[in-house]
Amino acid sequence: MCGICGFVSSVNTYSVETLRRMCLTLKHRGPDDEGVFITRLDAPCSRPFDEGNVGLGHRRLSIIDLSAAGRQPMRNEDGSIRVVFNGEIYNFRELRFGLERNHLFRSRTDTEVLVHGYEEWGERVFERINGMFACAIWDSRAGRLLLARDRLGIKPLYVYRHGGDLVFASELCALRAHTAFMEEIDAAALGQYLSFGYVPAPRSIFKRVEKIEPGVIATWEKGNFSRKRFWEVPGLAAGLAGDGVPGSEAPPGARGKYRGSFDEALDELEALLDDAVGRRMISDVPLGAFLSGGVDSSLVVALMGRHASRPVKTFSIGFREREFDESSYARRVAEHLGTDHTGFILDSDEARDLMLGAIQNFDEPIGDPSALPTFLVSYLTRRSGITVALSGDGGDELFCGYQRYGKMRPLMRCDAWPRALRKGMFAAAARLLPGRLAR
Fold this sequence. Notes:
Layout: E1 3-9, E2 14-15, H1 16-24, E3 33-39, E4 51-52, E5 54-60, E6 74-75, E7 81-89, H2 92-99, H3 111-121, H4 125-128, E8 131-139, E9 144-149, E10 158-162, E11 165-169, H5 172-176, H6 187-196, E12 209-211, E13 216-221, E14 224-229, H7 262-279, E15 287-290, H8 295-307, E16 313-319, H9 327-337, E17 340-346, H10 348-360, H11 371-383, E18 388-390, H12 395-398, H13 403-412, H14 419-432, H15 434-438
Parallel strand pairs: 15-16, 15-18, 16-17
Antiparallel strand pairs: 1-5, 1-11, 2-4, 3-5, 6-7, 7-8, 8-9, 9-13, 10-11, 10-12, 13-14
Helix pairs in contact: 2-3, 7-8, 8-9, 10-11
């Protein structure tokens, strides 16, 4: 996990100290290194200055190529392209093989594939990437800043716009460190939080701050700001056609209804999961996994074992209060798979102290209680010397594993009912069953 930040302005210049102050707030995301770059809009090939209209900052967590060659912001051969990147490109080796014919690589990082990929394919480079990322690309020849977020929005990216200024960052705390930022709560976003338990993109809890949506490229050029999609989940494009982001057509290669048998679908799914897990194990630092003992994390750890040359290091969290403790399931799975397992057992006082620290790291309010144990196990795993950990997050969302999905099926049939009848029925249900409807 790295942190990126920066700005571009058509009216103001800012100092390198402003950029370093933004980077400092992201130190927890990237403790290994810091890099900053500032230039002026009219500077040929992005020559660096002590102050300017364009700034890029990066805090690095070293995962691939730990040498100084992997430092960001990273540039192309003549310095006309500069990139800051947070994430991983899992197919970077394949992409690099094709790019080496026309471009000079100075590192072994996946970031440099993005630099030369943009030179070769322009913004269509994002269609070729298999990975999770948030990035910023400054193209000095075009006077253009590109901001992009991965297909499913795994990596965060915030943008603050006011007047002629655009400020971006991985977290809201870095935006707040910029001198142009004016802090004001967005009442509409607060209402969304109270309804949904979080603030959906593109809003944020602050006015004039928006989240770049998943699968979207945002472009600043000559003071103009625009967004467009480079990818959408197959089958959902029609439903998002009115969301204000151009490019919501069916993506290239989208398939229709699956025509194979159930057994063939299982075999194909296993092959896809095995390939995905194998790609995520490319790392130059120690790697482990979070193991809860549930289906999702157990499957990920089992597939990791196919690609590992030694027992997989797994981690779980438990509590001394037996009614809250599920760590026994993780231990049973770890024994079955032969992992090198570490179980952290916390009492209520320890958990409370760690949770207070977790809350301080949340940029905006969130009503997901699972975020707290995830923070705890992440903190304790990192303290054990593991930099990268795989988890089973996302399985329930993708395969409808939550009970509420089943409850939604009969409710969807209500769409055909008259509006007044639906409104009255849901109001009555909310008064009678407020807790159950939320689960």
